[in-house]
Amino acid sequence: QVQLVESGGGLVQPGGSLRLSCAASGRTFTIYQMGWFRQAPGKEREFVATIAWSGTSTNYADSVKGRFTVSRDNVKNTVYLQMDSLTPGDTAVYYCAGGRAYYSGKYRTEYDYWGQGTQVTVSS
Q1: Where does the pLDDT of residue 54 fall: very low under 50, low under 70, confident under 90, or very high at 90 and above?
Q2: How far is it, in rounded angstroms, from Cα 2 to Cα 15?
Q3: Distance between CA atoms of 21 and 120, rounded to whole angstroms?
């Protein structure tokens, strides 16, 4: 099967930056899209960004457009989420996800594999 492991979370000041990584292993040839979701306490898990494993298709939530950038390194089987201009509202557990087909990338039901999550805390 496919295993996804997130890393790079931590505590950062408002206005600061973090880069999250998601390393994929196992049957990675089954992956056609990768996504990032986040979940704050008491809230639903929400879409952040997505990227096709091949090609150039990307999509972002309105709340992070212009601040977050998703990218990939196919050789390393790794997807990144560069987060700039962070605010306390970005505090959440961030999850990496993989899907066996490419759709809009915005919905949890499109994905088949999930990582364990990494905590991002933006202090005030």
Answers
A1: confident
A2: 35
A3: 12
